[in-house]
């Protein structure tokens, strides 16, 4: 696909070629780590690769009990650096009232990791079209899209293009909505040394450091993000979560590279979604969920509400939760999502 509208960034292509042997990981180890994440899920589910175009496959978990099979399904789209296993505390609850599908986005998790377009719009389009092809293959007439972080951005982009397929959008701590603020005052220019550091590190993908440390990677995840173990402490007392996050993010950097190509300085979206919210069909209801302790600016939620005065827009703040609100306060999150979808058949 990438050959049609752009080429992959080759400037640092030597890194992935030699790092896999340096990093203690493999696709099999990722599969084992995901299975460990899902071992506490009680509901019956299936898992399979769904073929889409260009030989790509999207890894999919399906929860569909007999009593809810006729309800509008909910599709879970994880955020940057995530995967289906991170929904471990949500799958049982959310699948009690309707079918639930969780998939690894193209370029992430166990899904195929292809070359992406180098320009922001091309990469975004690949994410969107992969979901539409997946929906067609799954035979879903319509769905509720729930997206965290990058998944929220993709969910809205998809809904703008395919409004007839979306019954409700749930944005969880969404990335990429506001425009980059012009915070540099004329009398306080950015120091030259900061500009120099930015120039040095700009060619690298966001998670390149995790691959560069090789065998120290698993320990690095545990050291830098001990909070993940706490988020899932009701399920695991060992390093299950950090192992999963490690193996998710040291595979070939495909979706990671796409995300980098979609971002400008400091992680702001090159194509802010707020600029396009007027193109989203007014009949599609939106629920936006933030964590009270998150560093994500919730002003985008208020902006969406102001931009859609004749549409349903609900903003929910969950106390005690950070950016990973679905893991920080799983029970509260699950209940709020179920309530938000009550009116969807």
Automatic annotation (TrEMBL):
Q: Name one GO biological process term.
A: fatty acid metabolic process
Q: Recorded E.C. number(s)?
A: 2.3.1.51
Q: GO CC terms on record?
A: lipid droplet; mitochondrion
Task: List the catalysed reactions.
Answer: 1-(9Z-octadecenoyl)-sn-glycero-3-phosphate + hexadecanoyl-CoA = 1-(9Z)-octadecenoyl-2-hexadecanoyl-sn-glycero-3-phosphate + CoA; eicosanoyl-CoA + 1-(9Z-octadecenoyl)-sn-glycero-3-phosphate = 1-(9Z)-octadecenoyl-2-eicosanoyl-sn-glycero-3-phosphate + CoA; 1-(9Z-octadecenoyl)-sn-glycero-3-phosphate + octadecanoyl-CoA = 1-(9Z-octadecenoyl)-2-octadecanoyl-sn-glycero-3-phosphate + CoA; a 1-acyl-sn-glycero-3-phosphate + an acyl-CoA = a 1,2-diacyl-sn-glycero-3-phosphate + CoA
- This protein's UniProt keywords: Acyltransferase, Cytoplasm, Differentiation, Fatty acid metabolism, Lipid biosynthesis, Lipid droplet, Lipid metabolism, Phospholipid biosynthesis, Phospholipid metabolism, Transferase
Q: Where in the cell is it found?
A: Cytoplasm; Lipid droplet
Q: Name one Pfam family in it.
A: Abhydrolase_1
**Annotated ranges, domain AB hydrolase-1:** 73-328
What molecular function does GO assign, one term? Answer: 1-acylglycerol-3-phosphate O-acyltransferase activity
Q: Does the keyword Transferase apply?
A: yes
Family statement drawn from the similarity comment of this UniProt entry: Belongs to the peptidase S33 family. ABHD4/ABHD5 subfamily.
Its biological function?
A: Coenzyme A-dependent lysophosphatidic acid acyltransferase that catalyzes the transfer of an acyl group on a lysophosphatidic acid. Functions preferentially with 1-oleoyl-lysophosphatidic acid followed by 1-palmitoyl-lysophosphatidic acid, 1-stearoyl-lysophosphatidic acid and 1-arachidonoyl-lysophosphatidic acid as lipid acceptor. Functions preferentially with arachidonoyl-CoA followed by oleoyl-CoA as acyl group donors. Functions in phosphatidic acid biosynthesis. May regulate the cellular storage of triacylglycerol through activation of the phospholipase PNPLA2.
Could you identify this protein by its name? 1-acylglycerol-3-phosphate O-acyltransferase ABHD5
Gene name, Swiss-Prot/TrEMBL? ABHD5
């Amino acid at each position: 696909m990438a050959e049609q509208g752009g080429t992959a960034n080759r400037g640092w292509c030597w890194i992935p070629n030699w790092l896999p042997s340096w990093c203690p990981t493999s696709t099999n180890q990722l599969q084992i780590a995901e299975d460990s994440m899902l071992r506490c899920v009680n509901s019956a589910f299936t898992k399979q690769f769904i073929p889409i175009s260009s030989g790509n496959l999207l890894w999919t978990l399906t929860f569909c009990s007999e009593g809810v099979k006729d309800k509008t399904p909910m599709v879970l789209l994880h955020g940057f650096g995530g995967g289906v296993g991170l929904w471990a505390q949500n799958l049982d609850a959310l699948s009690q009232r309707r079918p639930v599908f969780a998939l690894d986005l193209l370029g992430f998790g166990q899904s195929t990791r292809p070359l992406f377009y180098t320009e922001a719009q091309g990469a975004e389009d690949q994410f969107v079209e992969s979901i539409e092809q997946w929906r067609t293959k799954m035979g879903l007439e319509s769905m509720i899209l729930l997206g965290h972080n990058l998944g929220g951005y993709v969910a809205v982009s998809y809904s703008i293009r395919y409004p007839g397929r979306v019954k409700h959008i749930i944005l969880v701590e969404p990335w990429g909505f506001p425009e980059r603020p012009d915070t540099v005052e004329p009398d306080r220019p950015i120091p030259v040394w900061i500009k120099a550091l930015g120039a040095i590190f700009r060619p690298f993908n966001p998670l390149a450091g995790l691959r560069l440390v090789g065998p120290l990677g698993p320990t690095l995840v545990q050291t830098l993000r001990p909070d993940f173990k706490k988020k899932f402490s009701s399920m695991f007392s060992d390093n299950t979560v950090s192992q999963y996050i490690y193996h998710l993010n040291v595979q070939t950097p495909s979706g990671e590279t796409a995300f980098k190509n979609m971002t400008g300085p400091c992680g702001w979206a090159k194509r802010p979604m707020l600029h396009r919210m007027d193109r989203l069909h007014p009949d599609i209801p939106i629920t936006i969920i933030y964590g009270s302790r998150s560093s994500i600016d919730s002003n985008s939620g208020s902006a969406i509400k102001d931009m859609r005065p004749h549409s349903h827009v609900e903003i929910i703040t969950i106390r005690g939760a950070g950016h990973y609100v679905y893991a920080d306060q799983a029970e509260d999150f699950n209940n709020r999502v179920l309530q938000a979808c009550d009116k969807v058949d």
